[in-house]
Specification:
The complex is a heterodimer of chains A (about 375) and B (about 150). Chain A is of the alpha+beta class. Chain A contains seven helices and 15 strands. In chain B, a hairpin with a 7-residue loop joins β4 and β5. The chains are: A alpha+beta (about 375), B mainly beta (about 150). At the A-B interface, α1 and α5 of A face α1, α2, β4, β5 and β9 of B.
Chain lengths: ~375, ~150
């Protein structure tokens, strides 16, 4: 027979932790939690960032699949012309993202847009195939669901909540227009995407691994923050745009007119909404030349990731570009007619041109 | 006990993952050293507020700029706020203008606006590098304080 003996301490006392021991254990646990919490937050941001990258990769696949089918890349801005009002046509303002929809698993949405729209609700508005102008969303005169659609694959999870209050779906990824202030609305821009442009991969003679297709555009989340667009700066010199933003207060200067256009409407191909220029380096201010939101200007890329932005290269690679990248001579005039073929805006500018003949080192 | 040690190391590695931003990278290493530069802009004796001062370097590698305050004073920025300018000779341009535009008459939604009027608060020739006639030399030791009195 086996006899079990209960282990006890001294007779009459129950074995227990002392107060000091308890406090020490609690202190150790507290220290561990304090050490872990920031790591958890960083892990969350790292996950968002990975997804943001992955979205861009998917856009690259979509662009290449589109090119396989049609032997041409999408335009940044285009659509149907001739309409004199905002309902009977889209006024040439559709974004290239509309054409890419079937390639990012949004075929039904594309069919809804291309098939025309008959409103059966109380609002007596019908839309032609291709949809109405992409900016009337939310007005009393129109109720067009596709422009309101939120497409998860075109929004960067790090971007936060857009300051624009209109109910449009957003996007975080802009089409590269190259390194010229005045070629953005051209059919043959210095970058890959333009107004009604028909650029083929073969036109990217600088090499697809050295040319940017798309880049991140951050949401404006506060009144005068960096991701706004100063509407009506009226200059083709990048330094004049830099001068509109005060880096010490991180706000646009009082004389500026900052508008939350960047990415505010995924369906709008207007430059302020969906173009990215490689003039000012990543995380710089944006400025329009004229007074509109679909006009020439400097449209910088930006993101909430520390230190730079993700860009999609022509070969489908996604790279992280530092905001410190060499952006050359920021006092050089960005007027296309007088610009040399080689970009004056350093490595960053050279990455934007599709056929500048630039030699690009490591970046 | 060995497991515990590894767990501790794992925790520490978690804590230090992601530390260190992009303030220093391959690009910042290649940058030239900057020296603080200040100055004042006056037009016929009166200080000019809100003018952009561009220092255009001969080698085209850097492009410091500054904006004048109400007293006409400016401090140059090359890479980081108010960091100054690299050593060297510069052509200086000073620009202050107001551009008035109107929408394109035929395609206002897609075509760039048309400039109606440009008002040059500082005469236009000072904003053209070849015509400004202004220059500056940023030197290693000494006072880099420039005064531009435009007429």
């Amino acid at each position: 027979m086996v006899i079990f003996r209960l282990q006890t301490g001294q007779a009459g006392h129950r074995r227990a932790f002392t107060l000091i021991e308890l406090l020490v254990v609690i202190a150790i646990i507290a220290i561990l939690i304090a050490l872990l919490l920031p790591a958890v937050q960083q892990a969350r941001e790292a996950a968002r960032r990975t997804q943001c990258r992955n979205n861009l990769k998917q856009m690259g696949l979509a662009l290449h699949n589109y090119h396989d089918n049609f032997n041409v890349l999408v335009y940044r801005q285009g659509g149907s012309a001739g309409a004199t009002d905002d309902l009977s046509g889209n006024r040439n303002r559709l974004s290239g993202l509309v054409g890419l929809l079937p390639y990012i698993d949004q075929g039904p949405l594309f069919n809804q847009i291309s098939g025309g729209f008959t409103n059966t609700g109380g609002n007596p508005v019908n839309a032609p195939p291709g949809g109405p102008a992409p900016w009337n969303q939310g007005g009393a005169n129109i109720n067009y669901p596709p422009w309101r659609a939120t497409i998860p694959g075109i929004v960067c999870p790090s971007a936060g909540v857009h300051r624009d209050t209109r109910p449009n779906g957003r996007t975080s990824y802009g089409f590269s227009a190259g390194d010229s202030v005045t070629s953005i609305q051209d059919r043959n821009p210095r970058g890959v995407f333009g107004y009604q442009s028909r650029v083929r991969i073969g036109d990217i003679t600088d090499g697809t691994s050295n040319t940017i297709l798309m880049a991140e555009m951050d949401f404006s989340t506060a009144g005068r923050d960096l991701s706004n667009v100063d509407q009506g700066t009226g200059s083709t010199i990048p330094n004049d745009c830099r001068a509109r933003f005060d880096r010490t207060t991180n706000q646009y200067v009082a004389a500026a007119n900052p508008q939350p256009h960047r990415g505010a409407r995924w369906s709008d191909g207007g430059a302020a909404f969906s173009a990215v220029t490689t003039i000012l380096p990543p995380n710089s201010p944006s400025c329009t030349f004229g007074n509109g939101d679909a006009t020439n200007g400097i449209y910088s890329s930006s993101s909430k990731h520390t230190g730079g932005v993700h860009v999609l290269m022509g070969d489908g690679a996604v790279r992280f570009i530092s905001e410190n990248i060499d952006a050359g001579n920021q006092a050089a005039d960005g007027t296309q007619a007088t610009m040399p073929a080689l970009s004056p805006y350093g490595v960053w500018g050279a990455l934007g041109t599709k056929s500048g003949g630039d030699v690009i080192g490591d970046f | 006990m060995k497991n515990l040690t590894f767990f501790g190391l794992f925790l520490f590695s978690l804590v230090f993952t992601g530390c260190g931003g992009a303030s220093e990278d391959q690009w910042t290493k290649e940058r030239s050293k900057t020296i603080p530069v200040t100055g004042i802009v006056t037009l016929n004796g009166t200080p000019v507020e809100g003018a952009t001062v561009n220092f255009i370097s001969m080698d085209g590698k850097s492009s410091p700029f500054g904006v004048t305050d109400s007293a006409g004073k400016f401090r140059l920025t090359t890479f980081n706020p108010n960091d100054g300018a690299p050593l060297g000779n510069y052509t200086v341009t000073i620009t202050k203008k107001t551009v008035e535009t109107k929408p394109h008459p035929k395609e206002p939604e897609t075509q760039p606006a048309i400039i109606v009027k440009t008002t040059w608060d500082v005469p236009e020739n000072f904003s053209i590098p070849a015509k400004s006639g202004l220059s500056a030399q940023v030197i290693e030791s000494g006072k880099n304080d420039f005064s531009f009195d435009l007429k």
